[in-house]
Write a structure and sequence with these properties.
Helix content: over 70%
Strand content: under 5%
Oligomer: single chain
Largest sheet: none
Mean pLDDT: 89
């Protein structure tokens, strides 16, 4: 459990450090860096959403079509008749 706590502390410290760096880049750095930071952040956010949508579209396009419901009910009827 000691190793897990060490990893947790490292993740926490790195997260806070990156947050402070991001704050500095957006609010306290030179204006060109501020604009570039916001542009990169917006691009990554929109890009991540579009990649997820593309993956969903690809999955829907390549998935096999489901069997029609009428065929499934016809297959189930003999099983129901055996029970009676």
């Amino acid at each position: 459990m000691n190793k897990d706590r060490a990893i947790g502390v490292c993740v926490f410290v790195v997260s806070i450090a990156v947050l402070v760096l991001y704050f500095w880049l957006v609010f306290l750095s030179p204006p060109t860096w501020q604009l570039l930071t916001i542009q990169i952040t917006a691009f990554l956010g929109v890009g991540a959403i579009l990649v997820i949508l593309a993956w969903i579209g690809y999955t829907l396009a390549t998935a096999p079509a489901p069997e029609p419901l009428s065929e499934l009910t016809a297959e189930m009827k003999p099983e129901e008749e055996k029970k009676e």
